[in-house]
Write a structure and sequence with these properties.
The protein is an alpha+beta fold. It folds into four domains: 1-367 and 435-527, no CATH class; 368-433, Dna Ligase, domain 1 (2-Layer Sandwich); 530-682, no CATH class; 691-832, no CATH class. Strands 3, 4, 5, 16, 17, 18, 19 and 20 form an eight-stranded mixed sheet that branches. It has a four-stranded parallel sheet with strand order 7-6-11-12, covered by helices on one side. β4 (169-176) and β5 form a beta hairpin. The protein starts with a helix and ends in a 17-residue tail after the last helix. Residues 528-829 form the DUF403 domain. Residues 100-481 form the Circularly permuted ATP-grasp type domain. This is Circularly permuted ATP-grasp superfamily protein/putative alpha-E superfamily protein. Residues 1-43 are annotated as: Disordered.
Amino acid sequence: MEAALAGSRGRAERPEGPRERVARWSAGYRPAPGRPDEFLGPDGAPRGAWPRLLDRLGGLTEPEIMARFVAAERHIRDAGISFRIAGDQREHPWPLGCLPLVIEGSEWAALSAGIVQRAELMEAILADVYGDGRLVAEGLLPAAIVAGTPEFLHPLHGVTPPGGHYLKLYAADLGRGPDGRWQVLADRTQAPSGLGWALENRMVLARTFPDFFQDLHVERLPAFFQAFRDGLALGAERVDPRICLLTSGPYSSTYVEQAALARYLGLMLVEGDDLVMRDGRLHVRTVSGLKRADALWRRIDSDFLDPLELNPASRLGVPGILEALRNGSLVMTNMPGSGLVESAALAPYLDGIARRVLGEPLRLGHPRTWWCGDLEGLAHAQANLDSLTLRPAATPQRGAGRDAILAGPVLAAERERVVAALRDRPFDYVAQEAAPLSTMPGWERGPDGLVLVPRPFVVRVFATRTPLGWQVMPGGFCRVSEREDVDPIELRLGIRSADVWVLSEKPVAAPLIGTQAAPRVRRVGGHLPARAADGLFWLGRYLERGEAVIRLVLAHLRSVGDAVGTDISGALDTPAALALRALLHEWGAIGAADLPTARLALEALAGRDRPGSARSHILAARRNAAALRARLSGEAWRVLADLNEFLSLNTERAFTESQLAGRAERALSQLAALAGLTHENMSRAEGWHFIELGRRIERAINTGAFALAFANDEATPGCLGVMLSLCDSQISYGRRYLQGAALDPVRDMVLLDPYNPRSIAFQAEAITRHLADLPALAADGIPEPHCRLATRILAELRSGEAADFDAVRLTALATDLERLADGIAARYFPTGPNALRPEKLTGLA
């Protein structure tokens, strides 16, 4: 976004009015011959809602526009809005384009009617295929299309969908055909993605152009999302159903949008391991035991849902989940097997089916298509390979080719292979009339500033089933190609997204989600899945580990010269410096204990190949946070991003001790800010207890390690000073004791003082309180093993004296703390199908 507008930087803004500015932007705009365009009609005149948008934009100077999009880029980065390309584990910044796709309200009304009709048609086909099969019997649909697609799931034949509907969410990829009318390029019924991206795009642009939404009367989205949430629960057995969003995990290419939707709609984000079947019903494994799931919005393909009856290799689904669909105890969006109607082979027969089932022709057409499994269709395809586009008849289930369309007519070099494929397995292919995608305006840098250029696009439109029928979202998810020869069928590098604005003629109200009906007042935080509790626990531990390494680095820099350019010759041999280096080496933060000071600090702070470096721990924390996006605030994510940036140093460069100390101090400030956000802004529900438990246990373990190294029986005054520095207790110690650092007073302050927030005793007190607030396994009043261990650790610290905590006792205390961490994990985060789980001893809810 920013790069596209960079040409306006440094150029003196000519004194021109809004009309002159728009004229300059569009002076060279030339759609490609034969391509329908959103901005200019066949007569070359501006069309639709684009003049309204451009006139409004023309009221801003290019530096003003640039400033707004720079702010949008910053918000995208700070909020961690990103995406993954299929097969790539890296996260890429969200590629939001500079201009929305704008459509007049009157045109949108007609388009919406076509979407609703098509959704009804797909519902009717699915009901027939999995029911009576009259379409095949009457010759309206070839049996080979149904039986030949991998999306036809035989175990679901004859199963009536709970709630009575196969589809609750329908999406269609649209573009304009050669005649300028909208047409459907692909139907999306399996597990349509893009709804969360559309929401993120809208939120970003609403911050960037808040005045535009009011001035241009842009239709709002919250009412649609409220209706969608209500529709997810249609058919549920319980009045107040628990709705879950099933994801394949944080490495899914669409996980960020799934987390955004779960957070916005108040859904429980779960993975397959979070779910279990008991007594014919689906339940969520939570730290409070099994909790029933009434509705499931699945974002994994049907085949992976149930390894018992579908794909036995699946590790994403839930064994036996189809049983819940058969007995009606679970409603699902969308019903497994609904991906069948995504098959391109259906296209030649849809109009006939619509006339038979709906009593009317299709309102939205599609590119003219021939199924090669039909003899006439095959003959036509073979005779016209030079002018047709071939594509798979059934959408591939996974991989980068899921939405791939073979671009254009068959090339001479490919003819032999294609001819052989059509001869051997003609029913695997369809042939379509080759037609380039329609275009919309995008900004590019020109010699005199911004210019508008035509760019190919595809827009995905969504419809949801509500208690009152189908409702179409007044907007969509638009993908725009930066190159004319790249089709934006799927999101990848070189493709940008765009918001979709439907412009009304009248002012539009701006309702907030949840205002349609007042919910029942409650003060519970919701149940926490065991996997999420595990992630929060380790998020806390990794953050504390990173902080401990940073404090060690700062202590070393200060002990050898105060990190301000002081002569440090000879200071490396002090007991304190040697102990600091040895501990950093033991923790894996540095590769050798005899490194030069600056190199040691750089490696310990930013070494990516050092598993114990501060950056490695922060990256591990960020990975845990990525799996918890639905539970972390935007502010917390921004602090994590800043923290990672502070520690992203080029380890090949030379830095002074002063520069590295400055980085370390800023990183500590960010960690303090994150702790403050957790303490002040996070609800005191189960999730808060687990992140605090992780922090407190790790801090106690690290403080014990510090005491072994710097407060042992041979500790020098310098070592004791380092100990106080590592525990941030110098000021408290100076106020309490007039003399210098002495062994027993230092030990008492950092180990046994219940008022020192850095002492082990303080951590033990906090751990005991947090455990007491978590759900118990049984109601027999007997403390659980991990609670008994925590109580024993606290009692030992309360009754001990500073002189008692020699190396033997500190080592035993560290062992007990590690056992406590393992005990909490075994109790609340059990893994494996036969692991002890809380639901075996508690009731179900």
